Amino acid sequence: MQVVQMTPVVSYGNAIGNDILALNSILVKNGYSTDIYVESISMDPRLPQGLVKHIDEYVDCSEDIILFHFSIGTSLIEKVKEFKAKIVAIYHNVTPSHFWKTYDQHMEHACASAIENAKRLADITDFCLADSEYNKNDLRKLGFNCPIEVLPVLIAFEDYSAEPNESILKRYDSDGYTNILFTGRIAPNKKQEDIILAFYYYKNYINLKSRLFLVGDYGEWDIYGRKLKDYVQCLGLWDVYFTGHVSFNEMLAYYRIADVFLCLSEHEGFCVPLVEAMYFGVPIIAYDSSAVGETLGGSGLLLAEKDPKIVAEVIHKVVSDEDIRTKMIYNEKLRLKDFAGEKVGRDFLTILSKIVG
């Protein structure tokens, strides 16, 4: 018997790719025969050579368990449906297609297609893992009637002890400026425009010595990304930094210099950056949407609305009131224990034993 993982592609550094690699490590350490199979092999040199194999190399066996990671439309589902192995869907959520409607027709179609694919996957799935209760409810709406367990994304926190980028620390840390941070790909569901507008009020009416870092990848011809930059110019703003794709050490540095983590996203199936901010002791202010409140679990400061003036005042309160900051960071550290690698790993093995049994 093998316990294998399948997904369209494994990318080093994103939440799903890191989850797959972490689960692979746990499977190996606990004596399971395991492999990772994909539809398209990434050429990223950071992936260990030979770790990821093409789906055509997989030899189907009825005794195997396939952990199928799902978040986007893929023809891989048609192959998975033909396998005799037991199918376990690991659902990372699908961004609703309407967010992409005016920005990217390809992404709009891909997200809509992913929902239809999920409905077809429901018929052949024996068991599901969902990153959150929010995702679990999504699966029920999509027609998954099999047993579903909630298991948070497995995060390799040991990697975060690496040295942060020194030049970023020297340039932006300890100069009297308030650094506001959001990490996550530049995408319309993340609502970076709302963050920009809140920063506009904070900088112009409360604290001139402030900066906003939007750390996340976007394409050169990305319409949404270009509109965000135009919006910054239209507002006459400065000190707004679009970093694009950054290295892991650069990302660590941005968390190190951050005074506040601001998330105004309208759709998250889990939101790993919230947990990363907890790890680095950055006070979190977040809009209560989708799985955001669930991931915060009573920590951070959850907003019921996104009025930019109110958000700006909340930022000021969190930055200027030491007691509030201390309490927020304390509560975030408590919540962080629920995502400890040892705990999530044990929970995964317990669930896997049920599936094997």
User: What is the structural class?
Assistant: alpha/beta
Q: Which sequence of SSEs, written as H and E, runs from N to C?
A: EHEEEHEHEHEHEHEHEHEHEHEHHH
Query: What is the number of strand segments?
Result: 13
CATH topology of the largest domain: Rossmann fold
Q: Name the CATH superfamily classification of the largest domain.
A: Glycogen Phosphorylase B
Assess the beta-strand content as a share of residues.
15-25%
Mean pLDDT: 93
Largest sheet: 7 strands, parallel
Key features?
single chain; 2 domains; seven-stranded parallel sheet; Rossmann fold; six-stranded parallel sheet; alpha/beta; 13 helices
Task: Characterise this structure.
The protein is an alpha/beta fold and 357 residues long. The chain has two domains: 3-151, Rossmann fold (3-Layer(aba) Sandwich), CATH 3.40.50.2000; 165-338, Glycogen Phosphorylase B (Rossmann fold). The chain contains 13 helices and 13 strands. The protein has helices at 15-29, 76-80, 105-122, 133-141, 166-172, 192-205, 223-234, 248-257, 272-279, 292-296, 308-320, 322-336, 341-356, and strands at residues 3-7, 36-38, 52-54, 65-70, 86-91, 127-130, 148-150, 178-183, 210-215, 240-242, 260-263, 284-287, 301-303. Strands 3-2-1-4-5-6-7 form a seven-stranded parallel β-sheet, with helices on both faces. The chain has a six-stranded parallel β-sheet with strand order 10-9-8-11-12-13, with helices on both faces. Helix 6 packs across helix 11 (308-320). The longest helix is centred in the first third of the chain and has 18 residues, at 105-122. The relative contact order is 0.11. The model has no long low-confidence stretch (mean pLDDT 93).
